[in-house]
Write a structure and sequence with these properties.
With about 70 residues, this protein is mainly α. The chain contains two helices and no strands. The protein is flat, with a radius of gyration of 31 Å.
């Protein structure tokens, strides 16, 4: 009985879940493109210079401790 029950249950669950996964119809295609916007200005120098200085200090310390 168990040999028949497992495959029947698996097929039932497969049919049950695939019937709920119906594809959607074609949509409206989204909004129409407008004028291109200006890129956002990002201040790169503030954090990047601190990271660069921290990396240089870490590398200098590692080189100094290696000797």
């Amino acid at each position: 009985m168990k040999q028949v029950l497992i495959p029947v249950t698996a097929v039932f669950l497969f049919v049950l879940t695939t019937s709920a996964a119906l594809a959607q119809g074609p949509g409206s295609g989204g909004p129409e493109p407008q004028q291109p916007q200006q890129p956002t200005a990002v201040p790169i120098d503030g954090g990047a210079s601190l990271l660069l200085a921290a990396g240089a200090a870490y590398g200098w310390r590692r080189m100094r401790n290696k000797k």
